Amino acid sequence: MKQRIIFGILMAVLFLIPFYVGGYFFTFFTLALALMVFYEYSTIIKIRLFGTKFFVGIFGIILMFSPLLFDWNSQLQIRVLLALVVFFITTTVFNRGFSIEKAGTVLIGVLYIGFGFESMAEARLDRGAEWTFVVLLTIWATDSGAYFIGKQFGKNKLAQAISPNKTIEGALGGIITALVIGFSLQAALGAYQSYMNTLIITLVVSVAGQVGDLVESGLKRHYGVKDSGRIFPGHGGVFDRLDSWIFVFIGLKLIGVI
After folding, report:
1. How large a percentage of the chain has pLDDT more than 70?
2. Domains of the chain: total
3. Backbone Cα Rg of the chain
4. Domain span holding position 48
């Protein structure tokens, strides 16, 4: 437990320094995180690391960041993305060991990871440090509330086939904790436009974060993997730590606040 706490603090510091600096420094840092997560994702779905398909996937992740890094227009981005789709589908014809299901899984990973982390970088650039930090605190509040309330009062399983330890009571506890923290931060910092805005964003963050965690759990269970990686002792991989963040920032982009 002591080692887990120490590494948890270290991880927070390593993230908060580039987050505080912001700008292109944080954007490149976020891209690095996305590439690390895609590496771990590739080990989970069992594609050959550092092979052609792996590097095409890496290129796809960078492509998702292209509007922030290279000032590409969206039409060019879409055309290159379609080229990636054609590439993965075509390789299933000439490679017996690469099925259409595996091609789709790789593409989903590129879009899911790429858009998630790109949206996080965009939130920091466009909405600022305070707004984005409140979102992150809401994610942490949800995780903490779900864990402690679920441990104390949890009886009804939320998704037993995917994550046996998660309960409905814990999920609701996470949402309630997030709302308490969200409204408290709004009163203290006024990061959002209004309390109604706070309610909507907090609910989206809390629900999307828990769904994101379940999605990664389902992915690992399907492929028989316990942790996405071992980069942090006691914490698993980067994907394990940031799975909820991906869905949160995609969700915020979908509702138009990023």
Report:
1. 93
2. 1
3. 19
4. 2-254
